Each structure stands twice: as structure tokens, then as C-alpha cells.
Amino acid sequence: MAANLPTHSQVQGGIGVTEPSTTHHDEHLHHDEHHDQHWLFKYVFSQDHKVIAKQFLITGIFWAIIGGTLSSLFRLQLGWPESTFEWLSPFLGKWIEAGKLNPEFYLALVTMHGTIMVFFVLTAGLSGTFSNFLIPLQIGARDMASGFMNMLSYWFFFLSSIIMFTSLFIETGPAAAGWTIYPPLSALPQAIPGSGLGMTLWLVSMALFIVSQLLGGVNYITTVINLRTRGMSMSKLPLTIWAFFLTAVLGLLSFPVLFSAALLLIFDRSFGTSFFLSDIYIAGQALNHQGGSPILFQHLFWFLGHPEVYIVIMPAMGMVSEILATNSRKPIFGYRAMIGSLLGISLLSFVVWAHHMFVTGMNPFLGSVFMFLTLIIAVPSAVKTFNWLATLWRGNIRFTTAMLFSIGFVSLFISGGLTGIILGNAAIDIQMHNTYFVVAHFHLVMGSSAFFGLFAGVYHWFPKMFGRMLDEKLGYIHFWLTFIGVYLVFMPMHYVGIAGFPRRYYAWTGFDSFSQFADLNKFISAAAILAFFGQFIFIFNFFYSIFRGRRATENPWNSTTLEWTTPVLPGHGNWPGEIPAVYRWPYDYSKPGAAEDFIPQNVPYSQTQSSNLPYERDTEE
Amino acid sequence: MIALGILLVLVLLLVVFGLLFRIQILTSIFSGSSAREIGTSNRVNAILFIIFMIVGGAAFAYSFIENYGKMNPPIASVHGFEMERLFWTTMIIIGIVFVLTHILLFVYSYKYQHKEGRRAYFFPHNNKIEIIWTVIPAIVMAGLVFAGWKEWTKITGPAPKDSVVLEVMGKQFNWLVRYPGRDQKLGVVNYRLIDATNEFGFDLSDKSGLDDFVAGEIHVPKGHPVLLKIRSRDVLHAVYMPHFRVQMYAVPGMPTKFWFTPTKTTDEMRAQLGNPKFNYELACNQICGRGHFAMKLNIVVDEPDDYVAWFAQQKSFSEQNPDVLANFQQKSDKLVEKENASAAAAVVTQAAKASL
Ligand code: HEM
Ligand SMILES: [Cu+2]
Ligand SMILES: [Cu+2]
């Protein structure tokens, strides 16, 4: 925060200058005039989108460490199922029974790992951070449409985090029915202890989480639609903004369905209804529930669940597009096709959910329909990949750490996306469903790629967030360790999956068919734990550089988008003076005839006569 | 032991941080002054991508081939062969795309690394290429959908009339198996009638249930269609039989089904694999609680004659549990006699022979 000082005064200098075109920002400016805010409102209950973004980021990093630790624990069990884990009992207490991990706790670990990574890290941590940070800065707005709602969005997330975190420590253990919490397992404490208080806390936490998502989403959408600066038409938006915008739309339309599923589940659990339960005899007792359907829950869950995977990946796609273009010094190839494919993916992602349910007993005709729709979604995904490759072609590539992670993203997205074509084929999915093949698929295409997008974003926008640079050499080491590590973990997982090894197995030692992979499992576990430790390089780099990193310049990557026209550390209101107007698209890199190899969006065509294409001229002024 | 673990972690952390610090120092020496120039690291990273591609690709190919044998559970059902063909065809297609796109990705990264004085080629779009690379994947996908759809409708279509029928019921944490007996009809069950002896919840006032028998493992005849009726009595489970390429959820309150035709007896498979201990296994593949990972059942594929013999030996549930039967004030006299069981065998033998 030390680097804050010089620019801070600039902000105040400019704050009085209000131009007519931005009157809707007056409240923010007004707000900043009493700038001697209590620190509590400046850094904690802040309504500044940049502070909120950092809050999301740091909370996300916290959750990533927890999520990673949980996975290291269950990988230990999978890699060395015969060994004793007595040495873990100081940490895990009664969950170590006679040197063995409790099988129910194993399931709890898997469940919490999935929940934390999908929702708390890759949804809140990723989209929460970058939608918040970049939307106002890249569209040229002083802040979000509603700073207050934005603040609430974080604090709902915070509350939800506290509850989820608490659930890790309760007597009966956290939720343990898988991150997809299928009833009846999740509805009946008799079935597994985690479905007692742990599940209640899970549901309450997720309900709050959804509120946070909706508050954030409404805000992002409103901001993108209403607060774009002069000249920033939708067809001049950076792809990041398109991605955040569509992500928010997806979230807004699908999270309420998860909310309703959670609500009905709460009813079944606590008030004796039978939405999802029927004909159950458990723990020596026949229950009174009749007429419900566990499959109905799955429809509701995946109606969110599938869009959710795109909610996770689209922000990463947007940022990667931006970073690839900037560091190839080339326009993103096929800007319109990129937007089109984002739109296509968004639309299609609502009509493929039942590909998670091919073998649930659903009508086979529905299976056919969903197979058809699922394989269509591979087309826009392929288009995006080809466009990224074409962006690299004949570029002049600078390998910043962000660029490395973006290239890594493309690689992982290809590797994981391709196996989706196998799984989307209902006939093949009969064999592959719920095996490690699925685990490998989604860890590559969603887990790892989205993490790579997240890292790319942090390395790229860190200078604008903290006014300092991350250490590049540490970044390189971090990248190569992670890139190699991820492949070492998830490629072999396919083999295990093709052999039919089921996921969520505490041990495979009882089955002849699966026990031949002992060595491979050990290898995967070792690689996973090493790759996890590699992440501490990043964490060190991150916190070290916030305070001691090399000072950043305004536009360290010679980028064209508006956030780089702000001071090194933009204050509340973002631009000290007038908000720049926009004249051109965001990808004028290496334009023939131009003096520099980039022309920022706020440079009018009248100033770049030598490089203008025939149809390019300023429309106003 | 505890101390050892903690020590290990600490040492690891120390090593990592030591490394960090050294690097940190070196960095500051080398780049202290040069603000944002593109140095040798650019070249190093470009080369690393090529090395990654070659070494990674080779390692992947090697380990794939190495594990190929283990990867493929031997196939033992008719549709399994079709499914396998579909799987590997798709694998080859995506394998080609995987290799090509990765070569482009890494070679471009290397080839177009920053060079002083070079300018990138301003190439924002090209409609022709974009249409081509939208249409080609669309066509390939259409082909795959069509092939998959044909197979899927065949597999999920109605079971042949003469199928051997049996019922598998999932419970925490094992599988219960029931055969329809001589009359080829599964009797009515009701979850409210379940108790420690009547695990299925037989409703013995239904006559067709009187000859039903339960079994400790699944027996099916080779070469004959088998229809599995699947149910669960508590939480979700899934019947997963990797060798037969069979999977279907067991859902409480909603019976499901799956049919397949076994192609190799257990003995044949043992001979083929050179493993006298081999057994076909049924695994639970839907998280169901503490014992999920151990919810296993053996499946025996018999020659039709052996199957018939086995079938004939089984005693019906009602016969084995007369007290349960007595509890249902049955309206008719006891039907189940040994001779009936052998009549059932005759029916099955006929059906099996007809299908061979
Ligand atoms: C080429 C496009 C894709 C296709 C055709 C595809 C297809 C599928 C199918 C059919 C399944 C279900 C497999 C099963 O459970 O049997 C699946 C699982 C999954 N996919 Fe994809 N997928 C694609 C891309 C993606 C992307 C881009 C993401 C995330 C960013 C993703 C994330 C997931 C996740 C998280 C699961 C597993 C959920 C679970 O069961 O826990 N997929 N995919
Ligand atoms: Cu999906
Ligand atoms: Cu199970």
C-alpha cells in the first residue's frame, strides 16, 4: 500500500473535475470528497470495486490453500492405502482411527474439496476478483453501478465462507455426499453422518453464496450495459468484458435453480416433504416419504451445474484472449467469432445438463437429444481454440508469466475439452460415467485451465492492483512446475479411468479389476502433492511483491485497453481527470503504418492517419 | 512419527524458500536496472516449450503404450465390442486433433518468439478460414453423434422377449440379487415389508413371488440376453460391471433396467487371461456412504447347461423362510415344490438353446 501515496494525491486533484458525460458517477465522487474515511470503510467495508476485487482474491487464495490441502490428504490415502497415517492425528484428531483415515471422512474431504474449488475459488475467487476489478476499469466507469450491492456481494460471500469453514470442524464432520450432494444420501443423516449438521451448514452457506453471486451478477450486467464510457460500443468491448458479462448472465439465470434445489432439499430434510425421496428403508426403518424423485434433484442441480462449469471457464477465456493478444503483439484473431462463440457456448450451456445423467434411468430418447446438443457445444469451443492458435501465428511473442499461463491454458483446455467428446457420447459414457476418466476430463478442462486463467490474470493485472510487479523469475518457476505437475497428475488418471476405476473410492484394494494400478496411483499422488507445494512459490511471490516488488509503470505491458490509462495505482474514481473516450477496438497491435506496436483505445483516428484502414475514421467530433 | 512428519514438511518448506531467496537475489542482480527489456528468459521459455512438447509427448506416448494392456478391461458382452470400437475411433480422432493443435501451439510459441525489430503480422480475421474451421468440426461431430446415437438406441432399446430376468437391489453396503423362479415373473415387493429376514420386502400374498429365489452372486448364461432389473432401497447406488460395459443407477422409488448379452464364461475368461482367480465384478459407482468402495458382487457367467443346473438347485425364498410365508395368510396352498423348480430349468434351457 506504500506505493499508493503519489497517485493518491493525483486522484484528489482530479476529483473535482466532473464532466457532463459522467454525471451518474457523481455520488462516488461526492463520496470521495470526504476522503478522510475511517480505514474501516476504506479497506474493509469498502465500496470501491478495486478493493472488493482484492478482497475476493485474497479470500479465494485462502480457500485455494484449504482446498489443495484437502486434496493432498485424500491423495495420500489413495496413493498409500495400506500405510498408517498416525502422524496426521494431531491435525485430524478422531478422523484417524487406529492409524487409518475414516472412510466417511475421506468422502467428506472429496466433497469439501470439490465444493471449495468449484464455488469458492473458481467462481467467487476468479470471477469475483476480475469482474470486479476489470469491468469498471476496462469500460471506462468510475465504479460499479451500485457500490453498495457490490460490497454486500463480498460480505455475503464472506459470511458463506465462514459457515462453510466452520462446518469443517464440527463433531459429525462436514457434508460428505459429493459436491453434487445427490439425495437421498445428502438428505438422510442415517445414511452418512456428514448429512447431519454438516449438510445443513453446507446448504445455508451455499444459499448465502448464491445471494452473493446474484448481487454481484446483477451489478456486473447493469454496469456493462449502462456505464460504458463515450464511444465504448458493445463491439469495442475487450473480450474480457464480454466474457464477464455473459458469465454474469449465466449465473443470474442458473443459480436461482440451484437455490430452489437447495430449498426443496432443506424441506425434505427438515419438514418432512418428499420432493426427492421415495420408498426408503434405512437403518432398520421404513421412512414415510413417498412419490419423490432423486432424479428430479439431479435435473435441478445440473441445470445450474453445467452452466456453472462455463461460469468458471468463461472469465478465464476472456482474460486469456486479452493476454494472448497483448503479448503476441497481435489483434486477437476473429474478434467477432470469439464473441459469437461465447454467445453460442452461453446459449448451449443451458441445454446440455442431462449429459451428466445418461445412466440415471432417464428416458433413452432424452439421452439422444442431450447427446446431440452436447456434441454441438464442442464446435464453438473448437473455434475459440483455433482463434487462439491463429493469434500466436506470426506474432512477436513476449513470454511474460501471464503469457506462459495463457499458453498453458490453451493446452489444458484442448486436452481436457477433447475428452468431453468421448463423454458426451451417451453410448460411450455408459462405461466412462463416474470413473476417473471423468475426473481427468474436468480437472484438465475446468480445474486446471481455470486456475491457469486465474494465475494469468493475477500476473497480468497485479501491477494495476498493487502498483508493483510480481517477480518474473519466480513466476517462470511457478509456471513450469505447475504446468508439468498438472499433466503428470491428470494424464495418467485417464488410464485408470479407461480401466473403469470408479471415482470417490476410499480404496480400490477389494477389487481385482482395479488393483493393478497401485503404482500409478502412487505416482499421481506424489505428483499432486509436489505440484501443490509448488503453489507456495506463488503465494510467497504474491505477498512479497505486494510490499517489496519492483514498482510498476502505468502501462507495463504496452497494452491498449483503458485500465492502463489510469495512474499506477488508481484511486477511488479510477481516473483523476475526465474518463477517456474510446475510438477504436481494443486490439490495434502492430498495425501497419503506426509508430508504435500498439494504439490504445482512447487514441482518436485523427491522430493515427498513417495507420488508419480505409473505413476507419472518427464518427464524432 | 508425528515429529518426523512435521519435520519433513518444514524441511521441504525450507528448501523451497531457500531456493526462492537465491533466485530472488540473482534476479535483483541481473535485472535491477533493466526495467522492462526482453531478455534471454524469453528465449529460454520458448525453448522450454519445445522441450516440453518433445519430452512430454514422448513420456505420454510411452506411458500410454505401457499401460494400454491394463487399461482395457477385457470385453465380455456383445454391445461391449461395439462400444469399444466407438471409444477407440473417437480416441483416434481426438488424438489426432490433440497432437496437431499442440504442435501448432508449441511450435508457434517457439517460432514467433520476440525478435528485436520484427513486427507482428496484423491479421485480425479471415472469414474463409473461420468458416472452414467451424464447418469441419461440425461435420465430424455430426458423424460422431450419428454413430453414437445408433449404438445408444440399440443398447437402450427394449430387451429381447426371451431374456433371462433378474433383479439387483442396492443397499448400504451390498447388493441383493433375486431371480423370478419357475414362473419367470418377479413377485411384488414393498419397502415397508423389509426387515432383517425379508431383505427384499417380498409381499408373499402375491403368488408370482412364491417361487422367487435370492442368490449370493449373479449367475448368467453365456450367449443369452440378460435383463437386469435394478432398484435401491435406501440411497442411490449404481450397478457398474466394467467387463460387460454395463452401468445403470439404482434409484430408490424408481426401478431402472439394463440388458446385455454375455459372450464369455468365467472359465473362458480365466483361460484367456491366464488368471485362474479372475472373477467378473460388479462395483457400486455412485457415492453411497461409508462402504461405497467395497460394495462388490461377483458375477459368474456359465455355459447355458451349467446355468440351468445352478438355477435348478436354488431354493425359493418362501421355502427357505416358512415363517415369513406363514405371516402372509396366503390364500392358496403352498405351490413351491421341487419338481416345479426343474420345470423352470426346462424353460430356461429351451430359451437358451433357441438363442444360440
Ligand atoms: C467440448 C466440450 C465438452 C463436452 C462435450 C463435455 C462433456 C461432458 C460430459 C458428457 C460430462 C459428464 C460425464 C459423466 O459424468 O459421465 C462432463 C463432465 C464434466 N465436465 Fe465436461 N464437457 C465439455 C467441456 C467442459 C468444460 C469446458 C468444462 C468446464 C470448464 C467441463 C466441466 C465438466 C465437469 C466439472 C464435469 C464433471 C462433473 C461431475 O460429475 O462432478 N466440461 N463433461
Ligand atoms: Cu456438463
Ligand atoms: Cu456406492
UniProtKB/TrEMBL annotation, chain A:
<dbReference type="InterPro" id="IPR023616">
    <property type="entry name" value="Cyt_c_oxase-like_su1_dom"/>
</dbReference>
<protein>
    <submittedName>
        <fullName>Cbb3-type cytochrome c oxidase subunit I</fullName>
    </submittedName>
</protein>
<feature type="transmembrane region" description="Helical">
    <location>
        <begin position="156"/>
        <end position="182"/>
    </location>
</feature>
<feature type="transmembrane region" description="Helical">
    <location>
        <begin position="239"/>
        <end position="267"/>
    </location>
</feature>
<feature type="transmembrane region" description="Helical">
    <location>
        <begin position="440"/>
        <end position="462"/>
    </location>
</feature>
<keyword id="KW-0249">Electron transport</keyword>
<feature type="compositionally biased region" description="Polar residues">
    <location>
        <begin position="603"/>
        <end position="613"/>
    </location>
</feature>
<dbReference type="InterPro" id="IPR036927">
    <property type="entry name" value="Cyt_c_oxase-like_su1_sf"/>
</dbReference>
<feature type="transmembrane region" description="Helical">
    <location>
        <begin position="56"/>
        <end position="78"/>
    </location>
</feature>
<feature type="compositionally biased region" description="Polar residues">
    <location>
        <begin position="1"/>
        <end position="12"/>
    </location>
</feature>
<dbReference type="InterPro" id="IPR023615">
    <property type="entry name" value="Cyt_c_Oxase_su1_BS"/>
</dbReference>
<keyword id="KW-0408">Iron</keyword>
<feature type="region of interest" description="Disordered">
    <location>
        <begin position="601"/>
        <end position="621"/>
    </location>
</feature>
<keyword id="KW-0349">Heme</keyword>
<feature type="transmembrane region" description="Helical">
    <location>
        <begin position="474"/>
        <end position="495"/>
    </location>
</feature>
<feature type="transmembrane region" description="Helical">
    <location>
        <begin position="404"/>
        <end position="428"/>
    </location>
</feature>
<keyword id="KW-0679">Respiratory chain</keyword>
<feature type="transmembrane region" description="Helical">
    <location>
        <begin position="365"/>
        <end position="383"/>
    </location>
</feature>
<dbReference type="Pfam" id="PF00115">
    <property type="entry name" value="COX1"/>
</dbReference>
<dbReference type="InterPro" id="IPR000883">
    <property type="entry name" value="Cyt_C_Oxase_1"/>
</dbReference>
<feature type="transmembrane region" description="Helical">
    <location>
        <begin position="337"/>
        <end position="359"/>
    </location>
</feature>
<keyword id="KW-0472">Membrane</keyword>
Automatic annotation (TrEMBL), chain B:
<dbReference type="InterPro" id="IPR011759">
    <property type="entry name" value="Cyt_c_oxidase_su2_TM_dom"/>
</dbReference>
<keyword id="KW-0812">Transmembrane</keyword>
<keyword id="KW-0186">Copper</keyword>
<protein>
    <recommendedName>
        <fullName>Cytochrome c oxidase subunit 2</fullName>
        <ecNumber>7.1.1.9</ecNumber>
    </recommendedName>
</protein>
<keyword id="KW-0249">Electron transport</keyword>
<keyword id="KW-1133">Transmembrane helix</keyword>
<feature type="transmembrane region" description="Helical">
    <location>
        <begin position="6"/>
        <end position="25"/>
    </location>
</feature>
<feature type="transmembrane region" description="Helical">
    <location>
        <begin position="85"/>
        <end position="110"/>
    </location>
</feature>
<keyword id="KW-0679">Respiratory chain</keyword>
<dbReference type="Pfam" id="PF02790">
    <property type="entry name" value="COX2_TM"/>
</dbReference>
<dbReference type="InterPro" id="IPR002429">
    <property type="entry name" value="CcO_II-like_C"/>
</dbReference>
<dbReference type="InterPro" id="IPR008972">
    <property type="entry name" value="Cupredoxin"/>
</dbReference>
<keyword id="KW-1278">Translocase</keyword>
<comment type="similarity">
    <text>Belongs to the cytochrome c oxidase subunit 2 family.</text>
</comment>
<comment type="function">
    <text>Subunits I and II form the functional core of the enzyme complex. Electrons originating in cytochrome c are transferred via heme a and Cu(A) to the binuclear center formed by heme a3 and Cu(B).</text>
</comment>
<feature type="transmembrane region" description="Helical">
    <location>
        <begin position="46"/>
        <end position="65"/>
    </location>
</feature>
<feature type="domain" description="Cytochrome oxidase subunit II transmembrane region profile">
    <location>
        <begin position="62"/>
        <end position="159"/>
    </location>
</feature>
<feature type="transmembrane region" description="Helical">
    <location>
        <begin position="131"/>
        <end position="149"/>
    </location>
</feature>
<keyword id="KW-0479">Metal-binding</keyword>
<dbReference type="InterPro" id="IPR045187">
    <property type="entry name" value="CcO_II"/>
</dbReference>
<keyword id="KW-0472">Membrane</keyword>
<keyword id="KW-0813">Transport</keyword>
